[in-house]
Design goal:
Elements (H helix, E strand, L loop, with lengths): L3 E6 L10 H12 L5 E6 L11 E4 L4 H23 L4 E4 L1 H6 L2 E3 L5 E3 L6 E18 L2 E15 L6 E5 L11 E2 L1 E3 L2 E4 L5 H4 L1 H14 L10 H21 L5
Parallel strand pairs: 1-2, 1-3, 3-4, 4-12, 5-7
Antiparallel strand pairs: 5-6, 7-8, 7-9, 9-10, 11-12
Helix pairs in contact: 1-5
Amino acid sequence: MTALRILHLYPRELGINGDVGNVTALVERARWRGIETEVVTHEAGVRLPDDIDIVHIGSGPLSSQRVVLEDVQRIAPALRAWRDGGVPVLAIAGGWQLLGSELVTSDGERLAGAGVFPTRATLGAERHVGEIVVRTSEGTLAGFENHSATTVLEGAEPLGTVISGFGNEASSSERYEGVRIAAAIGTHLHGPVLPMNPSLADRMLGSALALRGTSEPLATTSELEHVDRFAANARRAIADRLGVKLG
């Protein structure tokens, strides 16, 4: 099998919260299983590769979002085609905002996104900074959020329900976090999220391998058991500080 190709979008502009750790987690978890990977970084103005197995985009401030916005709009058709084809996509905070339908700045300017996710983010004056715990259908996620956005899901499924934290918006009686469409996920969780929540990383790797025709369960190794214990302890520590119980 040829190496899994991980497309890392705009790592210089979007990655202020250690989001490159998500790419590292994918590479290392694959390596410990004997799976080769190739990380392809994409910068504005450069031609996209024809074939990709996983897409990652990190977060960044509005100034950095503006730098890459035109290029995001340029490559939007390819990103949507990959999403429709079942390619796993992970978009973090500011990167998710760019891959949504629209980003509205705090002064009312409307910036068209890539339309990978049917979501609209509106930036406000208040920042939501702190640890967060989210219950999903596959288990409980924990991490750190740092954003000023209120995000509306326009008919899409949320990633999960907020147990403690802000998430997408505060207006609903039940708070939701993130968005998912097939194998594509948008979330506010930093940490970075994949090392903190290895089940999410393995879900992405499993989806990518399934597209290659490999359906066997991912193997567990001693290295994975070791780092997964650290991740479980980190999630438990966050839950304890927030006074919530992990499911």
